[in-house]
Amino acid sequence: MVKNGTTSAGRIRWRCTTCGASTTQARPDITAKAQLNAFLSWLLDTARPEQLASSPRTFRRDTAWCWRIEIPPPPPPATAPEVVILDGTYFQSWCLLIATDGAHVLDWQWCDREKKIAWQQILQRLPAPRMAVVDGGAGLHSALTAQWPATRIQRCYFHIFQVVRRHHTLRPRLEAGREILSLTKALMRVTDIDHAVTWLGEYAAWEARWDHFLRHRSYPRAHVPRPAGIPESQNWWYTHRELRKTRGLFRNLIRNQHLFTWIDPAMTNPGHPLARTTSSLEGGPNRALKDLFRAHRGLPVDHARRAAEWKLNSLTATPRDPWTLVRPEHRNPPRHRTAQQLDDEPLGPVMGTSFSWDDGNGIQHGWAGRSRP
Prior knowledge:
It comes from Mycolicibacter minnesotensis. By secondary structure, the protein is of the alpha+beta class. About 40% of the residues lie in helices and about 15% in strands.
């Protein structure tokens, strides 16, 4: 056959030199690749369906098979990054754990909530870094202790401020609360180890100044409700519980050396501090995912998960080529059996048709649930 012009659709027409019959050659692989590229342009670049196909309905029909493509997590980096930032974000009933090096996504893991076993799945796939920036979750801390025991931990300053604000609001009623809120805000103005030493001195002075105040106790009184979490059997409780929680927070951070790891001289080079917040993750992958779901509202749960994986794949240092992830079963899934085929199949093992007492058959005697007339 030889080329004989093109059809009205622009496809090459082939003509037989012997009988004169003409036909066109189909390339399902090229068609599928174009459909996948159009699908990703719509999903990631928010292109409109009518710009990618003759109609939105045609676009949805042609790209429906693309939702069946699984996107595996990226391979681990060849060398351990200096800093890994870890955090989780929630979508509907799912939680997505993400690890980044501050510039690119390193790995991700789906789970129902942030717990130790879920974090271990993502930590054991990555080489241990020198420092990890975390939000302070108990599950993540336990997983880091088990999987990366030599890795130093830096508690995110923004999450510290969120905890203090939750305890005291932005306008504390007590003077001690106003002072500790100012000290928490001053953390963001610490730039070197000398500033850190000054801050620790001011915090120690705050503890000493309000130590007696934080020892005040309250006792049950008639017609006065107990604070939440205080059982009826308890005869007294500390009056300023929120301030004591804040003091316990900073005591743990200082004791575990999780407050100024990012400027520790043993960890950093002079003039090159490490990350101290998870902002690069919150403003990077997490924000990109929120924007993605805002542009594609109403996705089913399985489609939303697949869309998030495609977005995270595009944010890795070496994104996977989408076409290399396509398998034949994605484009041509096994056909579902028809209702007639299901009706023709026996529901269980074929039993003999002969009478058997073992089947519980036979003449039954006695009351059958009805009263005699």
